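Input record (Table S2, row 681):
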Amino acid sequence: MSDHTEVKMTELNYSKDRPKAENPVKVEDISLRDGHQSLFATRGRTEDMIPVAEMMDEVGFWAVETWGGATFDTMHRFLNEDPWERIRTLKRYFKKTPFSMLLRAQNLVGYRNYADDLAKAFVDRSCENGMDIFRTFDALNDYRNFETVVERIKANGKHFQGCICYTMTEPRMGGEVYNIDYYVNKAKALEEMGADTICIKDMAGLCAPYDVYQIVRALKENSKIPIHLHSHFTSGMSPMTHLKAIEAGVDIIDTCMSPYAYRTSHAAIEPLVMTLLGTNRDTGFDIKLLGNINEILEKEVMPKYAHLLDDSKMSIIDINVLLHQTPGGMLSNLVNQLREMDALDKIDEVYKELPRVRKDLGQVPLVTPTSQIVGIQTVNNVLFDDENERYKMITAQVKDLCYGLYGKTAVPINSEVQKKALKGYKRGEEPITCRPAEVLEPELEKAKEEIGDLAKDIDDVITYAIYPVTGKRFLKWKYGHEEAPPEVKPRTLEQVKKERELIKKAKAGQLVEKKKEDVPEKSENLRTFNVFIDDEYFEVGVDEQGESPVISYIEQLGQMPLQPVQPMQAPKAARPKKPAPAVVPPATPKPAKTEIVEEAVAAPPVAAPTEGTPLRAPMPGMIISFEKKVGDAVNQGETLVILEAMKMENALPAPASGTVKAINFNSGDSVAKNDILCVIG
Ligand code: CO
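Output record (cobalt (II) ion complex):
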């Protein structure tokens, strides 16, 4: 690329007024969506985007990504923020740079295909609230899932960016399925649909530099519309991939501001600006302005999130991605899930099972939601299958996939697995071949009716329609019907400073240890009880000394979290499993105290000692629904409970036939592994 490096040094400077390049690379900044989604589990708050918003508007980005992906989910679930409000707020600061969002086509910003009426309303409302560019993707690259949303994007006069999800089955591009022809054909299909730009979406950072070169060249030769590259850093290849794509003529590149860059996120903008400075593809960006933005981010914003960064390893790249051709986020989710189930030793079996499950399920690309679908089914197979039976516990989403509800897979699904998954499936045992949304009943009116007065406008209704359980809870917080719990409140810089001072003191050995209280030895008479108080439970040891028992120790075993569904890629945000035992001084042996303990033991609000066969939670998660009521008859194997774990719904079968004697939780409750959900007698 000799012509690229011809630089007239005298005319060069860092600011925006240097001579304009012949064909500048356009850049989309994705710090405010994919950046914090990748690095700290999408926990970025609107208030932390505002301090840099006006400066970022001055850089000259082609677009800024501000919404979509997991933001909608995380905001209402974990941050107590209205997702719709974020677009409107940020729009007041970004006056000239267009907004881009990631749209999961018919999956919108959720994890299943929604009905056409909801999909249309969602796109219309997104446009109305200020969205400009819709980066649309489908996990199966089945563009029939684009039809409804694209019609609305176009009708609203907005920009339709069509994605090709980049995936592979071999160590490099090629093989039977995902070869160069595959990408060229997909690009042609997008052009025919009226795409304004085409995005190569390399969510796992799998796209090797020389492969991207080949693809971009082929797409430029075969299509007239601009090509955009989205390539995660995860494997470490992306800066090289960016450069080769630029040499091949790519039009737009995604990057992050450096504090939001690298690891599972994206390459940073600053080195790219310097790399291209003075070449015919110079971005034209003011590097000093970028430096000023960085300073604010580093000082005022990032400290609040540092605790969410995964600093468990030294390396900022994940070579497992290169070894297993799977997204880093998916791998860390698998590890989290196994850890939650005390089965981390099974990780190698999971790596082995993963390509088998993926092949069985039609070699789907691994991106939300298919990465979770394949990942969780893999873990279920490793944990629950035995030598006599494979696919013992099939998730609801795998059943939907086998039915055709997500669309057409790249290669056909294993017919045996498909048959097993569809046995007794509620929509029918024969899979469909039409556009999936055609079999979906309209759902917006139903949602409106269900949510009633709790929704004040159509945006509220859509929030509820996409996220019925957590959306409803959010609306209760929003309108003051329920107080939001402390864990959804923002961290302040003051808190962070205090914590840092404490850590500093601790490291310097200046923290004075509290004097231990004298605790009597536990005697052989010690009996232990589980005591449940609201959402906490304690193990209480009662030691009889003479006539009346006294409380001898209390160990807080766990706090039932609001959301045990593990945040994506944030192992550190997980709740502590067993906090250090809190040593409680022995209570004075007053009978009154004893009575309270005995009473609590006699009538715990959860897990009443009902006789019968218990159905225990096989994994931590959130109850979606109980399919039966107390008193209902149930047959062994019939679905009793729908449990959401890792965002997948698991149908839990009745362990025995009989009558439902007790149901210990409600829909929306979080449960720990082994909690007794209900009892059959
Ligand atoms: Co991404």
